[in-house]
């Protein structure tokens, strides 16, 4: 991660196809487009990647989460259980629908804690949204069981985990609906873009219509199409899809590079007994987009994070230094700052944020450091980085 590091002729060729005929819109203009349907081609490529029956491209990962939930009928007043360690987009996407995000603890996978999910279920719960953080995954079999026995939808926000698998299945294709982002810093980038993945034909049809003003996409005359229901514009453009198409073909190559770089650093850090690694549930394989590890306590983690910073080793310490991934720094959401009035029902549903503590999550996040694994590093650079990290961690432990 991120795909923009390896950018070149393949991307340029796909974009030029689109520029040659000037049809930047994904629908219609059949006669003008010279056979170029980049969005459709990308959807087909992603169906193969995710081994899923249906893929609907949208304008961003945030849009993907919102469209996925809407397509399955999640709306006003419904509760959606989600982890307190995520990207703030997953919270926003629920709020956009007038639904209520119910934040719960994570465990040592850095994903949803199944026990916390169970404890948060109420008669209003409609869905569980698992967020596959930092290239890893939550305990999916436990979550699948919980959702099944409580008749809840399981939605996967797999924006950070493209290329990871669980029991051989691509992350994002395990729940009822999966969501991906192709924003500028993700493993596969199209500049901006996202995808909803599902095997459910009704959800797919809903996502297809909903993301384009409710258009039914029957026939080839947009003006004559009917609109079975309300929709909005969450479309991707052909230019973005063209870039994504070139990038997705390189996914296996990107994952292989990530894995190689990840393993060099992991092996080096394994020498230090005080360092432990994020748990990967049995049957799971990470996407290797990040290497996430734990230090013994907050004090040491703080020291290591500062030492990394001073020595040019970029790494995320979400507990202190990051405002958009962990509940601890979400003051604007805890204080409910909104440009427009929020319904009394949602306000009431979010009251728990005033008092709820997330001690179990603090226990992990306060000791966790996550390093982005880059695609452009040379082997020498990775090895130098790995030994620098070992040296700095040892000094902080001494
Ligand atoms: C990036 C990301 C998103 C949102 O994607 P955008 O395309 O930037 O809107 C949602 N969830 C997670 C976990 C992400 O990392």
TrEMBL record:
InterPro entries per the UniProt record, alphabetical: DegT/StrS_aminotransferase, PyrdxlP-dep_Trfase, PyrdxlP-dep_Trfase_major, PyrdxlP-dep_Trfase_small
Record key words, sorted: Aminotransferase, Pyridoxal phosphate, Transferase
One GO term of the biological process aspect: polysaccharide biosynthetic process
Domain of life: Bacteria
Record: active site: 186
Alphabetical list of SUPFAM superfamilies matching this protein: PLP-dependent transferases
The keyword Lyase belongs to this UniProt entry's keyword annotation: no
GO molecular function, one term: pyridoxal phosphate binding
Pfam family, one: DegT_DnrJ_EryC1
Modified residue annotations for N6-(pyridoxal phosphate)lysine: 186
Family classification: Belongs to the DegT/DnrJ/EryC1 family.
Protein name: DegT/DnrJ/EryC1/StrS family aminotransferase
Organism: Pseudotamlana haliotis
């Amino acid at each position: 991660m991120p795909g923009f590091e390896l950018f070149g002729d393949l991307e340029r060729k796909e974009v030029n196809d689109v520029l040659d005929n000037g049809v930047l819109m994904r629908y219609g203009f059949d006669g003008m487009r010279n056979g170029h349907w980049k969005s459709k081609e990308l959807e087909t490529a992603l169906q193969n990647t995710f081994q899923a029956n249906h893929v609907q491209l949208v304008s961003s990962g945030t849009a993907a989460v919102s469209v996925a939930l809407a397509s399955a009928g999640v709306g006003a007043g419904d509760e959606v259980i989600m982890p307190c360690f995520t990207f703030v987009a997953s919270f926003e996407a629920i709020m956009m629908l007038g639904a209520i995000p119910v934040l719960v603890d994570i465990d040592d996978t850095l994903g949803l804690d199944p026990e916390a999910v169970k404890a948060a279920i109420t008669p209003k719960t409609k869905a569980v949204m698992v967020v596959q953080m930092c290239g890893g995954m939550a305990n999916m079999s436990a979550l699948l069981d919980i959702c099944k026995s409580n008749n809840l939808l399981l939605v996967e926000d797999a924006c950070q985990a493209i290329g990871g698998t669980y029991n051989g299945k691509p992350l994002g294709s395990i729940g009822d609906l999966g969501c991906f982002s192709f924003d500028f810093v993700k493993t596969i980038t199209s500049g901006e873009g996202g995808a909803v993945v599902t095997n459910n034909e009704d959800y797919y049809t809903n996502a297809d219509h909903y993301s384009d003003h409710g258009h039914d996409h029957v026939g080839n005359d947009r003006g004559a199409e009917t609109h079975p229901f309300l929709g909005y514009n969450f479309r991707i453009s052909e230019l973005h899809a063209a870039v994504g198409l070139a990038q997705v073909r390189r996914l296996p190559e990107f994952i292989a590079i990530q894995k190689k770089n990840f393993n060099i650093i992991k092996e080096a850090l394994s020498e230090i007994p005080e360092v432990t690694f994020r748990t990967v549930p049995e049957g799971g394989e990470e996407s290797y987009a990040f290497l996430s590890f734990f230090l013994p306590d907050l004090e040491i983690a703080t020291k290591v994070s500062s030492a990394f910073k001073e020595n040019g080793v970029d790494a995320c310490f979400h507990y202190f230094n990051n405002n958009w991934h962990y509940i601890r720094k979400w003051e604007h959401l805890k204080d409910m700052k909104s440009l427009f009035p929020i319904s009394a029902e949602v306000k009431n549903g979010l009251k728990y944020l005033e008092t709820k503590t997330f001690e179990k999550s603090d226990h992990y996040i306060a000791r966790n450091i996550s390093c982005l694994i880059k695609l452009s590093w040379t082997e020498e650079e990775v090895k130098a980085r790995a030994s620098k990290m070992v040296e700095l961690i040892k000094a902080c432990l001494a």
